[in-house]
Amino acid sequence: MKNEIITAMKERRSIRKFKAEMPPKEQIEQIVEAGLYAANARGKQATITVAITNKALRDKLAKVNCKIGGWDEGFDPFYGAPVILVVLADKSWPIRVYDGSLVMGNMLLVAHSLGLGSIWIHRAKEEFELPEYKQLLKELGVEGEWEGIGHCAVGYIDGEPPKPAERKPGRVFWAE
Fold this sequence. Notes:
There is one protein chain. The protein is an alpha+beta fold. It has one domain: 3-Layer(aba) Sandwich (NADH Oxidase), CATH 3.40.109. It is built from 6 helices and 4 strands; from the N terminus they run H-H-E-H-E-H-E-H-H-E. Strands 1-2-4-3 form a 4-stranded antiparallel β-sheet. The longest helix has 18 residues. It is globular.
C-alpha cells in the first residue's frame, strides 16, 4: 500500500536554485497553514510565521543572512527563492526549537507536495536578535519576545532536483 506522506518524505530535497517567479499566494497560504498544524508541546502553539513576499525586504534579509553566515557580499543564502517563511518561537517556551522545527518540517513537505522547491536556511536566530528585525515584528503587530528558528525558502525549482543520498545503515535498533 502506497502512502503519499511517506512518498513525499522520500522525494523531497533541499533546493539550491530557484526561479524568480512568485508562486501563487494560495500555495504560500497552504504551506503556512501546514505549519500551523504542526505537532507542538502541550498544544501551546508557541510559534509564528512571518511570510515575506516583498522582494525588497527579502533581499535585505538575504544580505543580513549572508553577512551573519560569513559569505562574500553578493551571495544569496536563499538561492534565489522569492518566498521566505520565517519561523519564530516564543522565547519563554523551553521547547521552542523543537516546536519550531516541526513547523519547518511540515512546511517543507507541503511545499514539495504542491510542486514547489524549498530549503531550510539557518541564522534566523541571529537576525531576529538585531534591533531592526525586532522593530519589523513590532511593525507587523507582533508582541512579545521571539527567537528565530529558521527560514523556509520557497519557490519554483530551476533545474532538476538533486537525487537522494543513500540512507546510512545501522540507524534503527529494535527492542521487541
